[in-house]
Design brief:
This protein is an alpha/beta fold and about 375 residues long. The protein is built from ten helices and 22 strands. It is globular. The N terminus is likely disordered.
Length: about 375
């Protein structure tokens, strides 16, 4: 945080003249896509000697960038339903996955997604209880109505800046939400009510993180665009999307004609997963800075970082690690096998071909040095 300057009052014979130096406050947000828990990831995290799990390595090389943000927010697309652990199609990951996410610098894990009901009431309750026990903030799924009433809106606060966060999903894969638990769905009536309540809390900006769209489609669907327009009309400032498992376009629209400024990233793609086919083996992290001066808050910086999942062979076992593409590109892909180098280069080429041609005002961020 920038230092605070005090208002100095100078007394003159002709009266008091207040000399004021304006202070600009800032808060930085980092949005992260799907954290998956395919069974191969679970196996790779197991220490066969001790029988314990550690996912720390998977986050290690991207952690310095995550930790620079004031608030880092990611989609947790698994349940923490306990043993037996399972991957697709009904995810239950070891608790250590969430612990590693926290260690990496992720502050908030969002739980409204199509796998929220994978393990029924046990899965929803245990996921919430585990996140509470490791002191990671979360929203999107709830134990009951009272829990939702008290926990639906997350307020990210730094200095005098307050940014609200809500989370919704289009579906739960046809699985009913077991009572009394609740999962936030993209119901326009419910979202409108939530937004009105959020805006009454004296927040500066409101973010809605959505699990939506068509899987593996690089273009936003008509439903995504319609939902986005609805949310912006209700007063939402920033929309971040996940679920398609591939990157979709991003747009920043300046305030004009009575409308507020708007930012949208339709899909961030995969952050951590075992999906290895073209365009699914990586994703984008979106970085947004909000500044506040003289009571006015604005988005003053924004952009994205491409990330790619490497599967190195360590002690004759496959592992996983999330890498920042520009860092490896700047160092001639040092440390990667020829196979991994070519896979990362193809992901970069595909991603830039899409985003450079379709994005509105949103550019890739500069290389980050560790």
């Amino acid at each position: 945080m920038k230092p605070l300057f005090f208002i100095t009052i100078l007394l003159f014979p002709f009266g008091a003249i207040a000399q004021k130096t304006d202070t600009t406050e800032t808060v930085s947000l980092l949005f992260i896509g799907d954290i998956m828990g395919h069974y191969a990831q679970i196996e790779s995290a197991l220490d066969t000697t001790t029988g314990t799990y550690s996912f720390d390595r998977m986050f290690r090389k991207v952690s310095p960038l995550i930790q620079k943000a004031d608030f880092a927010i990611a989609n947790l697309e698994v349940t923490l339903a306990g043993t037996p652990y399972s991957g697709y199609p009904r995810f239950s990951s070891p608790d250590e996955l969430a612990v590693a996410a926290k260690k990496s610098g992720i502050d908030i894990l969002l739980t409204a997604n199509n796998h929220a009901s994978d393990h029924n009431l046990k899965g929803i309750k245990r996921t919430i209880n585990v996140l509470d026990s490791i002191e990671v903030r979360h929203t999107g799924t709830f134990l009951d109505k009272d829990h939702k009433d008290s926990s639906n809106l997350i307020i990210m606060e730094k200095g005098s800046i307050k940014v609200g966060l809500l989370n919704y999903t289009e579906s739960t894969n046809g699985r009913r939400v077991p009572k009394p638990a609740l999962v936030n769905l993209t119901d326009t009536t419910a979202m409108k009510s939530d937004i009105q309540d959020a805006l009454s809390k004296n927040i500066d900006k409101l973010v809605v993180f959505l699990h939506w769209g068509i899987e593996y489609d690089s273009a936003p669907s008509k439903t995504q665009r319609k939902t986005a327009q609805f949310l912006f009309e209700q007063g939402v400032d920033i929309i971040i999307g996940a679920h398609p498992h591939v990157i979709q376009p991003m747009e920043f629209i300046q305030a004009a004609n009575g409308n507020k400024e708007r930012f949208i990233a339709y899909s961030l793609g995969n952050f951590l997963s075992d999906q290895r086919t073209r365009k699914r083996d990586g994703g984008a992290m979106v970085e947004i800075t909000i500044s506040k001066e003289n009571g006015l808050s604005q988005i003053t910086d924004y952009g994205y970082h491409l990330t790619w999942v490497n599967k190195p062979l360590i002690k004759k076992r496959r592992s996983y690690e999330v890498l920042i593409c520009k860092e490896y590109e700047a160092n001639n892909f040092k440390g990667l096998t020829e196979y991994s180098k070519n896979k990362m280069k193809r992901f970069i080429k595909d991603s830039r071909a899409l985003l450079d041609s379709i994005n509105v005002e949103v550019k890739e961020k500069v290389v980050v040095s560790n």
